[in-house]
Design a protein that fits this description.
The structure is a single chain. The chain has 226 residues and is α/β, with parallel strands linked by helices. The protein contains ten helices and seven strands. Helix 1 links the parallel strand 1 and strand 2. The radius of gyration is 17 Å and the shape is globular. It starts with a strand and ends with a helix.
Length: 226
Amino acid sequence: MKIIGIAGGMGPEATCDLYLKIIRNTPAEKDQDHFRVIIDSNPKIPDRTAYILGQGQDPRPYLIETARNVEAAGASCIALPCNTAHYFHKDVQEAVRVPVLHMMNEVASYLEEKVQEVGILASTGTLRTGLYEKALSGVGIGSIVPGADGQSKVMESIYLVKAGKLERAREIILEQGRLLAKRGAHAVIAGCTEIPLILKQGDLRAEVVDATEVLAKACVRFACEN
């Protein structure tokens, strides 16, 4: 049986969320039916958005070290429960021998032929690098993102989640999600691993696409198919 690896800590609760969703998406009737999962939760990885914006330390050495730890422990694949960290996906993949799953590509594959316009709630680093826009345009889907003021509020919400202030974070993200739906988004991607902790299916008139859930299903699919 293949072993699922998680190079996490970005943040710790988002890592737990991915692991829980892997468990819930695994077809199992008893403990022994579940996949072995190896997690290195490394919250010391520098802020990915800060680095992309030219304001922080390069996280790549820490990401690579964490991924190599998971690989050395026996993982057959690696998941990164941080959307913005996928800006460094190529660097991480080149540093290990096992597949590093790509969250944006998995989300684009999930949405292909389902919708025409998608709203994106994500970190400024993720938006600045166009990670979702590139993946979605590759399958013919257009993107709608918050304006400058709205994006500042999205970032405020993300950091409130990291600080454990979920109620206020949820109020902010609901407002921004509703604005994207009003602008024509047929679905809204919860494209930061903190956002699915406060934004759920049914909260908006548009479908909420939980990128962490999509990644969890990709992990299970990989483990089952191989």
